[in-house]
Amino acid sequence: MKPKALVLHAAGINRDVDAAYALEMAGADVRITHVNELKANRHILADSAILVVPGGFSYADALGAGRLFALDIASFFKAEVAEFVGKGKPVIGICNGFQTLVKAGILPGLAIPSLKAGERYATLTDNLNGRFECRWVTMKAERGPCLWTRDIDEPIVCPIAHGEGRFVTKDRSQLEAIIAANLVALCYARPDGKPADGRYPDNPNGSMADIAGICNQAGNVLGLMPHPEDNIFSGPGSRSYRGGKAGGGLDIFINGVRYAKQM
């Protein structure tokens, strides 16, 4: 039986169809649902096995990337999403969706003793070079609890399209706590898979520790800036840029769907 995947939609989101198609290819039964429909029919989330917050320019990125979409989630679905995450169901936020998960307080999901409960210490902010980046990059999956990147050993190449993708923490100690808890799921890398070491253009936005994606401690929630849903085809005539595996982005969705089937 195919697990039900819910892809959220809001004004300005433009990658929901791409994400839905990737999930279908991975074996899920996908439903794209506008946030207003979810407000009226809250059972839709509870009835789903996978939640996707896709990329795009939600609410035209007014007041900052992902902020208004995050406000929607925090204001109307905080309890429902917390229950969804608490049950261990797979959740993925891509690009604007990653920004949404961070600004809604769902990621990193790691308590820092020196901070007040619920105080946000991580964010995604303006690219270091001050420019919108739209091109292909390479990521390397890190060892850790993330179910979405499990057993992915080859570098993943896929596009980015963001102006606010730089992952930062308030101070270095919080970054070190995230790293120590193995919550760094994906890092920017060179085309050969070696670390980017903070160098542009391999690290396209100046993210601390080359972070391209992080997960929560349970490993069921992943947020990442690049778009794996835009490199899902392999076979004759297919290709991926930067010398990576054609269709390699699909492996992330296959992992999420496989896990949902096993729950």
Topology:
Layout: E1 4-9, H1 16-26, E2 29-34, H2 35-40, H3 43-46, E3 50-53, H4 67-76, H5 78-86, E4 91-94, H6 96-103, E5 122-125, E6 133-141, E7 156-162, E8 166-169, H7 172-180, E9 184-189, E10 211-215, E11 221-224, H8 250-262
Parallel strand pairs: 1-2, 1-3, 3-4, 4-11
Antiparallel strand pairs: 5-8, 6-7, 6-9, 9-10, 10-11
Helix pairs in contact: 1-8, 4-6
Which characteristics define this entry?
263 residues; globular; nine-stranded mixed beta sheet; alpha/beta; single chain
Poorly predicted spans = none
The CATH homology group name:
Class I glutamine amidotransferase (GATase) domain
Termini separation:
12 Å
Number of domains: 1
Beta strand %: 15-25%
Kindly identify the CATH topology: Rossmann fold
Number of helices: 8
* Lateral arrangement of strands in the main beta sheet: 2-1-3-4-11-10-9-6-7
Morphology call:
globular
Largest sheet: 9 strands, mixed
- CATH architectural group: 3-Layer(aba) Sandwich
User: By helix and strand content, what is the structural category?
Assistant: alpha/beta
Mean pLDDT: 92
Q: How many E-type strands?
A: 11
CATH class: Alpha Beta
Give the % helix. 25-40%
